[in-house]
Write a structure and sequence with these properties.
The complex is a heterodimer of chains A (305) and B (257). Chain A has 305 residues and is an all-alpha fold. Chain A has 12 helices and 2 strands. Chain A has a two-stranded antiparallel ribbon with strand order 1-2. Chain B is built from 9 helices and 10 strands. In chain B, the strands form 2 sheets. In chain B, strands 6-7-8-3-9-10 form a 6-stranded mixed β-sheet, with helices on both faces. Chain B has a 4-stranded antiparallel β-sheet with strand order 2-1-4-5, with no helix packed on it. Chain B starts with a strand and ends with a helix. Classes of the chains: A mainly alpha (305), B alpha/beta (257).
Chain lengths: 305, 257
């Protein structure tokens, strides 16, 4: 039971990060490594603020804004300074590592003795004492769904349409009389805002900041997006964003199972990477099977004729 | 009126491969005029369109629309008042968006893309009406992804999207070249209909000499960065495909082909 709850908690926290990566990877077609720096950015900012007595909920929008700035910078490096997409994001990722250490003041900052968004007098009063165990998971679910619906409604706005268009066909954005560079920067900003926001939720759930907590964020995010799209994106029941959320939870479950079967927590990043590789291979296999089925059906049709 | 004056355009300036395309090139196009442009590969037809749209920079000269100097205006700013249809049908539409979403995107051209809802329910009927004027049955498929339409259907939607909002000029860059003859014919007739209805100033580059002769008020033949043939009105009406084919062959011989 405890394992299921922990999988759900972390899966849904990472889901918000994965929604950010859905914007960069699926919509913008931009391999964004900035997330390895913007995820701990949100963590560093919120732990420092909480340790200094700031209300835990206030740290959430601040983390989002910080991520927004990080994404904007990656965008400017790529668009205005014309640095290749992946390089621009690696530059920002590396720079952010030091920025995060500066913000936190040291490599590890615990906040065990402070209130956080899951555990504070208000929330403890709302939830009956029998529900203590699910209190964080419910709070995470509410916040995660809120972010998902906000993103969904944004993607239906004029600005959101332009964002979808720029990844699809840059020329059309110019044809609409808009600066495609600015649209890309906006997309990267929103994506990293979400990632940093998710980092803030994660740090408060773990009750510490650690300088290395961002390592592998991009891999986790991409794995979630790819699992989500290849397992649940085909039917597209409640939209692609919901598929990404499910992908994130499934991926967390896979990692938890792998660790359960004798691997140690130091092997976590290895498991993360190996699972990602496995997922890429499997999802390509699924695509091929799909194509073969289509070809077979077409072949049958011809025979009938 | 669109006026290009004393345009100088070099490719690879300052290198051994430097090539002069336009040297002191000037052209005037009257408001509402439909100009078709022909010429061999490398004659400067597409470069001419790119210069007007701001897709490539020029070394010297100026471009004005109705007296307004747009020479230093960025490409995307110019496009707020220019509609453009490309040879490749996938360039004028978004494959992963539905017909309705594409129409809604184009409907907002020239206005800010803010946080208002993109698809307005009140506009759907207007979109359907525009689509039904194409006679391709697309009005019943507005929720279909544009990527799953045929090249001709996509090009028809692209043409509609380029001319939906008020524009000062329509640029057609070999927009029928990637289509089969029958579909090309349909798109060409649609083009004529839209251009005449909206009285659009139009520049159409084409490799199809028959289209160049049949459509448009004026015909330009480009060769090595110059308009070697420029006929309009009555003179153009008397022009036949054989006439321009003759001129075409003559310049080709001069070039040693």
């Amino acid at each position: 039971m405890a394992l299921v709850i922990s999988v759900l908690e972390q899966g849904m926290i990472y889901a918000i990060m994965a929604l950010g990566m859905y914007i960069t990877y699926k919509i913008l077609d931009f391999p964004d490594m900035t997330v390895d720096g913007s995820f701990p950015l949100g963590a560093a900012i919120s732990t420092v603020l909480i340790a200094n007595g700031v209300n835990a909920y206030v740290t959430l929008p601040i983390s989002f804004l910080a991520g927004l700035c990080a994404g904007t910078l990656t965008g400017i490096i790529h668009v205005r300074l014309k640095v290749r997409d992946i390089l621009a994001s690696i530059i920002m990722m590396t720079a952010l590592y030091s920025v995060n250490l500066r913000i936190a003041g040291r490599a590890n900052l615990p906040i065990y003795n402070f209130d956080n968004i899951y555990d504070n007098p208000v929330m403890n009063a709302i939830f009956p004492s029998g529900m203590k165990m699910v209190q964080p998971v419910v709070i995470i679910a509410v916040i995660m769904l809120l972010m998902k619906f906000l993103l969904d409604s944004y993607l239906k706005t004029k600005s959101g349409y332009l964002l979808k268009a720029v990844g699809d066909n840059e020329t059309i954005v110019t044809s609409m009389g808009m600066d495609k560079g600015k649209v890309k920067i906006l997309g990267l900003a929103i994506a990293n805002g979400l990632v940093s926001f998710s980092g803030s939720l994660y740090a408060q759930q773990q009750r510490y900041f650690d300088a290395s907590m961002g390592v592998g964020t991009a891999v986790i995010g991409l794995a979630s997006v790819i699992i989500g799209m290849s397992l649940f994106g085909r039917v597209n029941l409640w939209g692609y964003t919901f598929a990404v959320v499910l992908g994130s939870v499934v991926y967390r479950a896979c990692v938890a199972v792998a660790i359960r079967f004798g691997l140690q927590s130091t092997d976590l990043k290895l498991v993360t990477a190996a699972l990602f590789l496995l997922i890429i291979v499997i999802s390509r296999q699924l695509d091929r099977q799909g194509q073969r089925r289509v070809q077979k059906n077409l072949g049958n049709d011809k025979e009938e004729v | 009126m669109i006026e290009l004056s004393h345009i100088h355009k070099y490719y690879n300036p300052g290198t051994v491969t430097e090539m002069c395309l336009f040297e002191d090139f000037s052209l005037q196009i009257a408001k509402g005029e439909f100009v078709s442009i022909v010429g061999s590969n490398g004659s400067g037809k597409t470069s001419l369109l790119n210069i007007i749209c701001g897709s490539i920079p020029i070394e010297r000269g100026s471009i004005t629309i109705d007296g307004r100097d747009i020479t230093s205006m960025k490409e995307y700013v110019r496009h707020q008042k220019i509609g453009r249809v490309y040879q490749d049908p996938s360039k004028g539409t978004c494959a992963n968006m539905t017909i309705l979403e594409n129409m809604a995107l184009a409907d907002n051209k020239g206005k800010p893309y803010g946080l208002g809802r993109s698809v307005k329910k009140s506009r759907i009927d207007a979109y359907k009406e525009m689509l039904s004027s194409l006679n391709l049955g697309l009005e019943d498929k507005i929720h279909t992804r544009v990527g799953s339409l045929s090249g001709g259907q996509r090009q028809a939607v692209a043409l509609l999207m380029a001319t939906m909002t008020p524009i000062e000029m329509l640029i057609l860059d070999e927009h029928t070249a990637a289509l089969d003859p029958k579909t090309a014919e349909i798109i060409m007739e649609l083009t004529e209909k839209i251009v005449r209805e909206k009285k659009l100033t139009t520049m159409m580059v084409t490799h199809n000499l028959r289209y160049a002769v049949e459509y448009g008020d004026r015909l330009l033949m480009m060769h090595q960065g110059e308009a070697i043939l420029d006929v309009s009105k009555e003179e153009k009406k008397a022009l036949t495909v054989d006439d321009i084919m003759g001129t075409f062959n003559r310049i080709s011989v001069e070039c040693g082909n």
